Amino acid sequence: MAGWISLGISGANGRMGRAFQALLRDDARFELAAKVARSDDWRTAPKLDVVIDFSTPQGLDAALAHCEAHGVPLVCGTTGIDAAQRKRFDAAAAKIPVLYAANFSLGIAVLTRLLREAASALPDWDLEIVEAHHAQKVDAPSGTALALGRAAADARGRDFDEAARFGRHGHTGPRKPGAIGFASLRAGDIVGEHTAFLVGDDERIELTHRAYDNAIFARGALAAAAWLAGRPPGRYTIDDIVAARAVS
Asked: Does 1 have pLDDT greater than 50?
């Protein structure tokens, strides 16, 4: 049975693209109208109600350009994007609904809320974020780890770019107060693990989320796409989805 939401998938041949297609076989909300693997695939794309982009930073540029040109809402989970692309989301939000998330897991959304609260309540505790992913992941730290760090920095009133410390090696000297450290592991077929360590004198808190199947991210992104389709232009977040579910 065909769904009523005409959906385009950008990054259709990737790990997440295949996960979307598997779920869509049994999801009556959507009709998979476009599978985009290359930038020029957009030339033949039909009219769409919403696009999900889990591709590359270059693929995202093409998807965002298409969505802006045709007034199509965009749900994006592509990682490794730069500051210029984050600004493009803000500009696009004046024309179309845009929802970007580094991670579409509802568990990660709750973890982020918990970390914000803990970082604010314990502003002097050291904070380190450790993430682990599969051996084929090409960017580090993960977008989710960076989003967690940004959430903690915001909660503490700190500038993230000044606080962040990446890839310690050699004689680094003592840890600087207020730093947010990141460490990345890449091995095997790990889907995704994130742990925030908050460490004080003689005690510590560990907040951990482990993903065991890419389907959790695909399910979350499809829920976001169904929610975003038909909404007015604006910049939306995964927290908007979580809040809407809590109210309902």
From this structure: no
Predicted pLDDT of residue 103: 84
Beta strands 203-211 and 192-200, pairing class:
antiparallel
- CA 61/CA 54 separation, integer angstroms: 12
Q: How far apart are CA 39 and CA 43, in angstroms?
A: 8
Q: Is the dihedral of CA 46, 51, 54, 57 positive or negative?
A: positive
d(CA 116, CA 127): 12
Domains of the chain from N-terminus onward = 5-100+214-247 (3.40.50.720), 106-211 (3.30.360.10)
Summarize pLDDT for 128-185 with one digit per residue, the tens: 999 999 999 989 999 899 999 999 999 999 999 999 999 889 999 999 999 999 999 9
In the prediction, which pLDDT does 167 show?
86
**Is residue 245 pLDDT above 60, yes or no?**
yes
Rounded Cα gap, residues 5 and 13, in angstroms? 21
In angstroms, the CA 147 to CA 190 distance is 19
Q: Which residues are catalytic?
A: 133, 137
34: β partners: 8
CA atoms within 13 A on the CB side of 201: 1
